[in-house]
Amino acid sequence: MKVAFQGEIGAYSESAVYSFFGSSAEVKPCKNLSDVFESVEKGETLYGVVPIENSIEGSVNQTYDLFLTHDLKVCGEIVLKIVHCLITNPKTNLNSVKVVYSHPQALAQCRSFLEKLGCDLFSTYDTAGSVKMMKEKRLIDAGAIASERAAEIYSMKVLAKGIADNQNNYTRFFVLSKKDSQPTGKDKTSIIFASKHVPGALFHALEEFALRGINLTKIESRPTKQQPWEYNFYLDFEGHRLEENCQEALKALEEKSAFIRVLGSYPKAPETF
Asked: Which of 88, 127, 171, 189 is flagged as catalytic?
């Protein structure tokens, strides 16, 4: 079993892979999120794991947008606790750190700590990739924000652990495949739809779920990028698309929408908080 993820070995996405598939999974690191989608779409890997939202910084917009250009399904979800560390070369101390590298979301999640540190910040494509780069370039006056595992993999030093502004820091990941999952009785479904341009369109769209007692767990709007101020809505709800009440809701929504696409149904991730 081969699974693609975005980032370098030691990234949080890699940890999410092992959390879902087990330690025997073979991983394929990808530089960009689009590379993960393409890897699964082309059959280079059976699965892909991509971040979809963080409990502090919100949604990963690029992931949502990629669902519009790739024909893949969501077959699982993972919720991973994120523990950020300030990592440096072994000979570096806290006072000598002048610049910190990491993924933009990691930098944002550690804003208070970094403001007190008073150093320059540089965004990179990956948390673990920042540690790898710092090691390869032998940067003595720099630090990176990543996981403790990344520090171990690249033989670097953890100067501070748990530096996020909020310790209840979790990232939700989607598992990508060419097919979604069969019903388990504890499922969620993710869809994309665009409401018609008439008064009350969004209200009447969501009404179809409320009338059937279907719990909505998330709704997110994203620009269509076709016309200014037009939006697609990304919706998660409890239940499987094959359940009768969910089928009825989706059929009714289709009649009230300009566009709808079911991303997939999948088992709900165990709560880790």
From this structure: 171
